[in-house]
Amino acid sequence: MKEYLPKIINFFSKIAPRLTAGYALKKFATPSRIPRPQSEMEVYASSKKFFLKDGIAAFEWGNPTHPLVMLIHGWNGRGTQIAAFAKSLVEKNFRVVALDGPGHGISPGKMTNPKHYADFILNAQKELAPEGAQSVIAHSFGGGSAVLAVTYGMKVKSLVLVASPAFYERVVNYFATNFGLNKKSELIFTEMVSDFATIHPRDLNIAQLGSQLKIPALIVHDEGDTAVQYKWGEAIHAAWPGSILFTTQGLGHRRILKDPKVIAYVTDFIAKN
Description:
alpha/beta; Rossmann fold; eight-stranded mixed beta sheet; 8 strands; about 15% strand; globular
């Protein structure tokens, strides 16, 4: 059935473009809650578990008086998905808190978008460390949202973007094309995404936003990433003054979150900044 879906969507987008675009928006903006796998159970068990004021699930390691490092997962992820960084950071005297984003893990919500996600990150920083966080490590969709959160006023000394997309507009266009929308329905879909996120996709250019920020940034990306192309990491690095690009091979989009060399490099970067 899935292989025929784009053709079915294309047909309906011709006779009911707005209705079809609305259906596409619901699919586009609704993450899947993937159960926590066995591989994350050990780090999950070792965490202190609590909820923020808005119901966001939090998982904490280390001394709560130490400088805060926030872990922000990507689309369809969970806080513990990125928690392999915790042990190394705690050894460097950091407090580490991983969060389940809105509509993800055990946090409330169904649909979300970059603006909504950025607000959640900003609010979490204000609640967890009003004085400001030491760093944020953000993966994929979470990376772009973290950059947006800084532009909204998040207090943080450095950012680590792992496998993050650079251009949200291309994400929107790619989804619309592969979903099967025709041109008219695609234009309506883009308008709906803009209204829902209260920001036009073309204005969420992470490379451009990063170029205006004055904080150190580490961009970690694998050359063989098939979910978010490596050239997007290069684009962010090229536009962001003083940023560092750490390139890996053979780790793809998710294994990069657990690689010992990546963890050591990221920990060292945060400790120095």
